[in-house]
Amino acid sequence: MNSKANYTQWIKTEAKRLGFLSCGISKAEFLETEAPRLEDWLNKNRNGEMSYMENHFDKRLDPTKLVDDSKSVISLLLNYYPSQTQTDPEAPKLSKYAYGHDYHHIIKGKLKELTHFIQEEIGEVSGRAFVDSAPVLDKAWAAKSGLGWIGKHSNLLTQKVGSFYFIAELIIDLDLEYDTPTTDHCGTCTACIDACPTQAIVDPYVVDGSKCISYFTIELKDQLPEAMKGQFDDWMFGCDVCQDVCPWNKFSKPHNEPLFNPHPDLLAMTKKDWEEITEDVFKKVFQKSAVKRTKFSGLKRNIAFLKE
Protein backbone atom coordinates (compact mmCIF):
# COMPACT_ATOMS: atom_id res chain seq x y z
CA MET A 1 0.00 0.00 0.00
CA ASN A 2 1.30 3.48 -0.81
CA SER A 3 1.19 6.27 1.75
CA LYS A 4 -1.85 7.88 0.09
CA ALA A 5 -3.80 4.61 0.40
CA ASN A 6 -2.59 4.15 3.97
CA TYR A 7 -3.61 7.66 5.01
CA THR A 8 -7.02 7.22 3.40
CA GLN A 9 -7.59 3.93 5.23
CA TRP A 10 -6.45 5.35 8.58
CA ILE A 11 -8.80 8.34 8.27
CA LYS A 12 -11.80 6.17 7.38
CA THR A 13 -11.08 3.74 10.24
CA GLU A 14 -10.76 6.60 12.74
CA ALA A 15 -13.98 8.23 11.46
CA LYS A 16 -15.79 4.96 12.12
CA ARG A 17 -14.28 4.74 15.61
CA LEU A 18 -15.55 8.26 16.34
CA GLY A 19 -19.09 7.10 15.53
CA PHE A 20 -19.55 8.46 12.02
CA LEU A 21 -21.88 6.41 9.85
CA SER A 22 -19.64 6.70 6.81
CA CYS A 23 -16.75 8.65 5.36
CA GLY A 24 -16.09 9.51 1.71
CA ILE A 25 -13.32 11.55 0.13
CA SER A 26 -13.22 13.67 -3.01
CA LYS A 27 -10.74 15.96 -4.70
CA ALA A 28 -10.96 19.61 -3.60
CA GLU A 29 -11.88 21.34 -6.84
CA PHE A 30 -14.46 23.68 -8.39
CA LEU A 31 -17.98 22.19 -8.38
CA GLU A 32 -18.70 22.68 -12.05
CA THR A 33 -22.14 21.08 -12.28
CA GLU A 34 -23.36 22.84 -9.13
CA ALA A 35 -22.44 26.37 -10.26
CA PRO A 36 -25.28 26.94 -12.79
CA ARG A 37 -27.80 25.21 -10.49
CA LEU A 38 -26.92 27.44 -7.54
CA GLU A 39 -26.99 30.55 -9.71
CA ASP A 40 -30.41 29.67 -11.12
CA TRP A 41 -31.77 28.85 -7.63
CA LEU A 42 -30.61 32.23 -6.28
CA ASN A 43 -31.85 34.14 -9.35
CA LYS A 44 -35.32 32.70 -8.75
CA ASN A 45 -35.19 33.88 -5.09
CA ARG A 46 -35.63 30.35 -3.81
CA ASN A 47 -33.58 31.31 -0.77
CA GLY A 48 -36.40 33.63 0.45
CA GLU A 49 -35.02 35.87 3.19
CA MET A 50 -31.96 33.66 3.70
CA SER A 51 -29.74 36.38 2.22
CA TYR A 52 -26.62 34.66 3.56
CA MET A 53 -27.08 32.11 0.74
CA GLU A 54 -26.11 34.85 -1.73
CA ASN A 55 -22.82 35.54 0.05
CA HIS A 56 -19.50 33.91 -0.85
CA PHE A 57 -20.78 32.44 -4.14
CA ASP A 58 -17.23 31.54 -5.24
CA LYS A 59 -16.34 29.95 -1.91
CA ARG A 60 -19.47 27.79 -1.98
CA LEU A 61 -18.28 26.25 -5.22
CA ASP A 62 -14.53 26.14 -4.72
CA PRO A 63 -13.00 24.71 -1.51
CA THR A 64 -9.56 26.00 -2.46
CA LYS A 65 -10.93 29.49 -1.78
CA LEU A 66 -11.90 28.38 1.75
CA VAL A 67 -8.75 26.47 2.65
CA ASP A 68 -5.38 27.45 1.16
CA ASP A 69 -3.76 24.73 -0.89
CA SER A 70 -6.60 22.30 -0.13
CA LYS A 71 -6.39 18.92 -1.83
CA SER A 72 -9.14 16.77 -0.32
CA VAL A 73 -12.70 17.12 0.97
CA ILE A 74 -13.49 14.48 3.60
CA SER A 75 -17.27 14.09 3.91
CA LEU A 76 -18.79 12.46 6.98
CA LEU A 77 -22.29 11.33 7.91
CA LEU A 78 -23.60 11.10 11.48
CA ASN A 79 -26.88 9.30 12.12
CA TYR A 80 -29.54 11.05 14.23
CA TYR A 81 -32.57 8.80 13.65
CA PRO A 82 -34.30 8.41 17.04
CA SER A 83 -35.55 5.17 18.57
CA GLN A 84 -38.77 6.91 19.72
CA THR A 85 -40.81 9.88 18.52
CA GLN A 86 -43.41 12.21 20.08
CA THR A 87 -46.25 10.27 21.70
CA ASP A 88 -49.24 12.62 21.36
CA PRO A 89 -50.46 12.41 17.72
CA GLU A 90 -52.13 15.83 18.12
CA ALA A 91 -49.10 17.62 19.56
CA PRO A 92 -47.24 20.20 17.43
CA LYS A 93 -44.33 18.41 15.77
CA LEU A 94 -40.60 18.88 16.09
CA SER A 95 -38.08 17.77 13.48
CA LYS A 96 -36.22 14.65 14.67
CA TYR A 97 -32.80 16.23 14.24
CA ALA A 98 -33.65 18.71 17.02
CA TYR A 99 -34.62 16.18 19.70
CA GLY A 100 -31.25 16.13 21.46
CA HIS A 101 -28.26 18.40 21.93
CA ASP A 102 -27.31 20.83 19.18
CA TYR A 103 -25.53 18.76 16.54
CA HIS A 104 -23.09 21.58 15.67
CA HIS A 105 -21.27 21.17 19.00
CA ILE A 106 -21.30 17.37 18.97
CA ILE A 107 -19.96 17.05 15.42
CA LYS A 108 -17.38 19.81 15.87
CA GLY A 109 -15.97 17.86 18.82
CA LYS A 110 -15.68 14.73 16.68
CA LEU A 111 -14.08 16.66 13.79
CA LYS A 112 -11.56 18.15 16.21
CA GLU A 113 -10.62 14.64 17.30
CA LEU A 114 -10.32 13.49 13.69
CA THR A 115 -8.11 16.47 12.83
CA HIS A 116 -5.92 15.75 15.87
CA PHE A 117 -5.62 12.10 14.79
CA ILE A 118 -4.56 13.11 11.25
CA GLN A 119 -1.91 15.47 12.60
CA GLU A 120 -0.62 12.91 15.09
CA GLU A 121 -0.48 10.01 12.64
CA ILE A 122 0.40 11.76 9.38
CA GLY A 123 2.14 14.98 10.40
CA GLU A 124 1.78 18.62 9.43
CA VAL A 125 -1.67 18.72 7.82
CA SER A 126 -3.69 21.95 7.69
CA GLY A 127 -7.39 22.34 7.11
CA ARG A 128 -10.76 23.39 8.42
CA ALA A 129 -13.82 21.60 9.77
CA PHE A 130 -17.30 22.53 8.58
CA VAL A 131 -20.67 21.71 10.12
CA ASP A 132 -23.47 23.39 8.23
CA SER A 133 -22.22 26.83 9.27
CA ALA A 134 -20.05 28.03 6.39
CA PRO A 135 -20.46 28.38 2.63
CA VAL A 136 -19.95 24.68 1.84
CA LEU A 137 -22.34 22.68 -0.36
CA ASP A 138 -22.23 19.67 1.94
CA LYS A 139 -24.74 17.49 0.06
CA ALA A 140 -22.89 18.02 -3.22
CA TRP A 141 -19.58 17.00 -1.61
CA ALA A 142 -21.11 13.96 0.09
CA ALA A 143 -22.59 12.83 -3.25
CA LYS A 144 -19.29 13.45 -5.04
CA SER A 145 -17.60 11.35 -2.34
CA GLY A 146 -19.89 8.40 -3.04
CA LEU A 147 -21.81 8.59 0.26
CA GLY A 148 -25.20 8.66 -1.46
CA TRP A 149 -27.17 10.46 -4.13
CA ILE A 150 -29.19 13.66 -3.85
CA GLY A 151 -32.86 12.67 -3.93
CA LYS A 152 -35.85 14.44 -5.44
CA HIS A 153 -36.39 16.15 -2.06
CA SER A 154 -32.80 17.50 -2.35
CA ASN A 155 -31.58 15.51 0.69
CA LEU A 156 -28.73 13.03 0.47
CA LEU A 157 -30.01 9.44 0.28
CA THR A 158 -28.39 6.06 0.75
CA GLN A 159 -29.89 2.65 0.05
CA LYS A 160 -28.76 1.24 3.39
CA VAL A 161 -29.80 3.96 5.85
CA GLY A 162 -32.03 6.49 4.10
CA SER A 163 -31.48 10.18 4.90
CA PHE A 164 -31.75 10.87 8.64
CA TYR A 165 -28.15 11.97 9.23
CA PHE A 166 -26.04 15.10 9.46
CA ILE A 167 -23.30 15.89 6.94
CA ALA A 168 -19.98 17.47 7.87
CA GLU A 169 -16.64 18.08 6.14
CA LEU A 170 -12.95 18.37 6.75
CA ILE A 171 -11.16 20.23 3.96
CA ILE A 172 -7.42 19.54 4.17
CA ASP A 173 -4.19 20.13 2.25
CA LEU A 174 -3.37 16.41 1.97
CA ASP A 175 -3.64 14.26 -1.14
CA LEU A 176 -5.75 11.15 -0.54
CA GLU A 177 -7.44 8.43 -2.58
CA TYR A 178 -10.77 9.65 -3.92
CA ASP A 179 -14.11 7.87 -4.00
CA THR A 180 -16.49 7.92 -6.95
CA PRO A 181 -20.15 9.04 -6.96
CA THR A 182 -22.91 6.44 -6.62
CA THR A 183 -25.99 6.15 -8.84
CA ASP A 184 -29.44 7.66 -8.32
CA HIS A 185 -32.06 5.24 -6.99
CA CYS A 186 -35.14 7.46 -6.82
CA GLY A 187 -36.48 5.96 -10.04
CA THR A 188 -40.06 7.00 -10.84
CA CYS A 189 -40.98 7.54 -7.17
CA THR A 190 -42.55 10.93 -6.38
CA ALA A 191 -43.60 10.25 -2.76
CA CYS A 192 -41.76 13.31 -1.39
CA ILE A 193 -43.13 15.64 -4.09
CA ASP A 194 -46.70 14.41 -3.57
CA ALA A 195 -46.55 14.62 0.23
CA CYS A 196 -44.97 18.07 0.71
CA PRO A 197 -47.66 20.11 2.53
CA THR A 198 -46.60 23.43 0.94
CA GLN A 199 -45.57 22.12 -2.52
CA ALA A 200 -42.02 23.30 -1.84
CA ILE A 201 -40.51 20.66 -4.14
CA VAL A 202 -41.20 22.65 -7.30
CA ASP A 203 -39.42 20.20 -9.62
CA PRO A 204 -37.79 16.86 -8.98
CA TYR A 205 -34.48 17.67 -7.21
CA VAL A 206 -35.40 21.36 -6.77
CA VAL A 207 -36.74 22.71 -3.47
CA ASP A 208 -37.97 26.28 -3.23
CA GLY A 209 -36.51 27.13 0.17
CA SER A 210 -38.92 30.05 0.58
CA LYS A 211 -41.90 27.62 0.55
CA CYS A 212 -40.46 25.03 2.92
CA ILE A 213 -42.00 24.58 6.40
CA SER A 214 -38.48 24.45 7.89
CA TYR A 215 -37.81 27.88 6.40
CA PHE A 216 -41.00 29.37 7.85
CA THR A 217 -40.59 27.84 11.32
CA ILE A 218 -36.83 28.42 11.75
CA GLU A 219 -35.39 30.93 9.29
CA LEU A 220 -38.22 33.44 8.89
CA LYS A 221 -38.05 35.99 11.68
CA ASP A 222 -41.12 38.06 10.66
CA GLN A 223 -44.79 37.22 10.94
CA LEU A 224 -45.77 33.98 9.25
CA PRO A 225 -47.75 34.63 6.03
CA GLU A 226 -51.52 34.28 6.38
CA ALA A 227 -51.59 32.49 3.02
CA MET A 228 -49.82 29.53 4.67
CA LYS A 229 -52.50 29.05 7.36
CA GLY A 230 -53.51 25.43 7.70
CA GLN A 231 -50.67 24.16 5.51
CA PHE A 232 -48.02 23.39 8.13
CA ASP A 233 -49.26 19.88 8.95
CA ASP A 234 -48.74 20.69 12.66
CA TRP A 235 -44.96 21.28 12.37
CA MET A 236 -43.73 23.84 14.91
CA PHE A 237 -39.98 23.47 14.28
CA GLY A 238 -38.60 22.08 11.04
CA CYS A 239 -40.38 19.44 8.97
CA ASP A 240 -39.65 15.78 8.21
CA VAL A 241 -42.49 15.00 5.79
CA CYS A 242 -40.36 14.44 2.68
CA GLN A 243 -38.05 12.15 4.65
CA ASP A 244 -40.81 10.33 6.52
CA VAL A 245 -42.55 9.28 3.28
CA CYS A 246 -39.35 8.29 1.45
CA PRO A 247 -39.26 4.50 0.91
CA TRP A 248 -35.51 4.40 1.55
CA ASN A 249 -36.05 5.58 5.13
CA LYS A 250 -37.60 2.28 6.08
CA PHE A 251 -33.94 1.24 6.42
CA SER A 252 -33.19 3.95 9.01
CA LYS A 253 -31.71 2.53 12.21
CA PRO A 254 -31.66 4.32 15.59
CA HIS A 255 -28.51 6.30 16.36
CA ASN A 256 -26.19 5.38 19.23
CA GLU A 257 -25.13 8.91 20.24
CA PRO A 258 -26.40 9.52 23.82
CA LEU A 259 -26.26 13.31 23.32
CA PHE A 260 -28.89 13.05 20.58
CA ASN A 261 -31.39 11.57 23.03
CA PRO A 262 -34.20 14.00 23.89
CA HIS A 263 -34.79 15.63 27.26
CA PRO A 264 -36.84 13.11 29.33
CA ASP A 265 -39.95 15.35 29.20
CA LEU A 266 -39.89 16.18 25.51
CA LEU A 267 -41.55 13.24 23.74
CA ALA A 268 -44.38 12.95 26.26
CA MET A 269 -45.47 16.59 26.00
CA THR A 270 -49.11 16.85 24.92
CA LYS A 271 -50.76 19.35 22.62
CA LYS A 272 -51.91 21.24 25.73
CA ASP A 273 -48.38 21.21 27.21
CA TRP A 274 -47.00 22.81 24.07
CA GLU A 275 -49.75 25.41 23.82
CA GLU A 276 -49.13 26.41 27.45
CA ILE A 277 -45.32 26.18 27.37
CA THR A 278 -43.52 28.71 29.59
CA GLU A 279 -40.09 30.18 29.09
CA ASP A 280 -38.79 28.13 32.03
CA VAL A 281 -39.97 24.88 30.46
CA PHE A 282 -38.52 25.96 27.12
CA LYS A 283 -35.13 26.61 28.73
CA LYS A 284 -35.22 23.29 30.60
CA VAL A 285 -36.28 21.09 27.65
CA PHE A 286 -34.17 22.83 25.03
CA GLN A 287 -31.19 23.83 27.18
CA LYS A 288 -28.60 22.57 24.68
CA SER A 289 -30.83 22.08 21.66
CA ALA A 290 -30.80 23.54 18.15
CA VAL A 291 -34.37 24.71 18.91
CA LYS A 292 -32.84 27.63 20.83
CA ARG A 293 -32.15 29.12 17.40
CA THR A 294 -35.81 30.02 16.97
CA LYS A 295 -35.97 31.36 20.56
CA PHE A 296 -38.93 30.98 22.92
CA SER A 297 -40.81 33.79 21.15
CA GLY A 298 -40.33 32.10 17.76
CA LEU A 299 -41.59 28.74 19.00
CA LYS A 300 -44.61 30.41 20.63
CA ARG A 301 -45.31 32.21 17.34
CA ASN A 302 -45.19 28.91 15.44
CA ILE A 303 -47.44 27.09 17.91
CA ALA A 304 -49.97 29.95 17.90
CA PHE A 305 -50.00 29.89 14.08
CA LEU A 306 -50.93 26.18 14.14
CA LYS A 307 -53.66 26.80 16.69
CA GLU A 308 -55.50 29.64 14.98
TrEMBL record:
Cofactor binding notes: Binds 2 [4Fe-4S] clusters per monomer.
Taxonomic superkingdom: Bacteria
Organism from which the protein derives: Bizionia paragorgiae
Subunit-level organization: Monomer.
Binding site for [4Fe-4S] cluster 2: 196, 212, 239, 242
Protein name in UniProt: Epoxyqueuosine reductase
Catalysis performed (reactions): epoxyqueuosine(34) in tRNA + AH2 = queuosine(34) in tRNA + A + H2O
NCBIfam families recorded: tRNA epoxyqueuosine(34) reductase QueG (TIGR00276)
Annotated positions binding cob(II)alamin: 60, 132, 156, 167, 214, 239-240
Similarity comment: Belongs to the QueG family.
Cellular location(s): Cytoplasm
GO molecular function, one term: metal ion binding
EC number per UniProt: 1.17.99.6
Coarse class of the protein's main subcellular location: cytoplasm
Gene name as annotated: queG
Keyword Metal-binding: yes
Keywords assigned by UniProt, alphabetized: 4Fe-4S, Cobalamin, Cobalt, Cytoplasm, Iron, Iron-sulfur, Metal-binding, Oxidoreductase, Queuosine biosynthesis, tRNA processing
Lineage, highest ranks first: Bacteria, Pseudomonadati, Bacteroidota, Flavobacteriia, Flavobacteriales
Gene3D superfamilies: 3.30.70.20
Active site location: 132
Record-listed [4Fe-4S] cluster 1 binding positions: 186, 189, 192, 246
PANTHER family noted in UniProt: EPOXYQUEUOSINE REDUCTASE (PTHR30002)
GO cellular component terms given for this protein: cytoplasm
Transmembrane intervals: none
Domain 4Fe-4S ferredoxin-type: 174-205
Pfam families, per database record: Fer4_16 (PF13484), QueG_DUF1730 (PF08331)
Named cofactor requirement(s): [4Fe-4S] cluster; cob(II)alamin
GO biological process: tRNA queuosine(34) biosynthetic process
